[in-house]
Amino acid sequence: MVDKTENTHKSIEEAEKEGKYIRKVRSFVKREGRLTKGQANALEQFWPTMGLNHLDGMIDFAHLFNNSNPIILEIGFGMGKSLVEMAKNAPELNFVGVEVHRPGVGACISLADEEGVHNLKVFEHDAIEVLADCIPNSSLTTVQLFFPDPWHKKKHHKRRIVSLEFVETIRQKLKVGGVFHMATDWENYAECMIEDMNSAPGYKNLATDGDFVPRPDSRPLTKFENRGHNLGHGVWDIQFKRQD
């Protein structure tokens, strides 16, 4: 099957080399906060061992981690607390995080060092480009997308990262039997996620009753999420398995 995302990415690069301007619709806005001293120190000290560079191209995961353990990719890990917790609790798995906001990347690798986590690597880059240029097809056991920007205004829905094209890209990167796990606290976005996943070929919903699954124990409950529960806000977890 042709990787449509990869072809699109190449066509954009070719157009830019020819001096043409191609507008890219981003699923994020880089609102860079100031790095704390601790975050800056962590980036300087730990990036050589934890950091991954998009320009290095396709990853050989067995070489990167020096083992053949399953690979979990998390897109948009925020400040990294949950990602580090998951990596610490599952040393038999390898984790790769992708985040565009530098303070979050610094906080994540600082915490990973404090917790003695060695099965985690991170990108500071756009996930769409990382998927196209760095992640081999059929290499991932799980892809995690927790609480992506909901872009709640209807005119901004085109900026949402979850789309038919995106979920097809994820399917290609997952191994057969691999799982795409999403979570959101916006009901409309949850419904749109389900609609896209049900329309995409090659997936099976793991929910046994309705469209959504209970929060798995493997996904930590954040303070933000717990506060939302106390206020009566809903959270929707979605898990689909790659079938072919």
List keywords for this structure.
single chain, globular, 8 strands, Rossmann fold, disordered N terminus, 39% helix, 8-stranded mixed beta sheet, 244 residues, alpha/beta
Q: Can you put this structure into words, describing what you see?
A:
The protein is α/β, with parallel strands linked by helices and 244 residues long. The protein folds into two domains: 71-134, Rossmann fold; 136-244, 3-Layer(aba) Sandwich (Rossmann fold), CATH 3.40.50.150. Helix content is 39%, strand content 19%. The chain is built from nine helices and eight strands. The protein has helices at residues 4-17, 37-50, 61-65, 81-89, 102-114, 127-134, 164-173, 187-199, 223-230, and strands spanning 51-52, 71-75, 94-99, 120-124, 140-146, 174-184, 203-205, 236-242. The chain has an eight-stranded mixed β-sheet, sandwiched between helices. Strand 5, helix 7 and strand 6 (174-184) form a beta-alpha-beta unit. Helix 4 (81-89) runs parallel beside helix 5 (102-114). The radius of gyration is 18 Å and the shape is globular. The model is unreliable at 1-24 (pLDDT under 50).
